[in-house]
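[Archive record]
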Amino acid sequence: MALFNQGNVRFESGHQLRLIDYQFPLKSARADVDIGKIDLLGVFEDGTLAVVELKVLGNREDRRIGLLEGLIYAAIVEANLGKIAAEVTAMHGCLVMPVQPKILLVAPPRFWSDTTLYPPVAGIRGLASEISGAVPIDIVLLSLRGGQLTDLGLDGTRPTLQNDVLLSPVL
């Protein structure tokens, strides 16, 4: 939530991602039960949507789970792109291009460096590359740097980060 409240995140490359929704519910009709929720939905400067799957420090699940969640959510977003684009434009005033969304799997550096997690980073990077070549879809593994949490928001205030966040590729 604190990351969403920041509004934008910057990439090491200088690009920016505007964060437009947190826990974005996926459903085909208002009366449907949620299919799932995208951790963060963002829009790049060129109007491409980004499905952001966040993993926190201490998460012990198989790293492929986050990749699979991102793929499922991106497929649903792509299948409903017209409707989602219209909603984003109406609510946030930003144009969404009619192109396949990008998948961003984002976690703190220690999540990526933890050698006890499976598969190893080289394995998840190879799998993401293999999927990107077959589908094709952009899948980016990113390390979340900076952004010290200053307020958890437990007293009804908005969770906030002390400084800016920088996303850098996982090497």
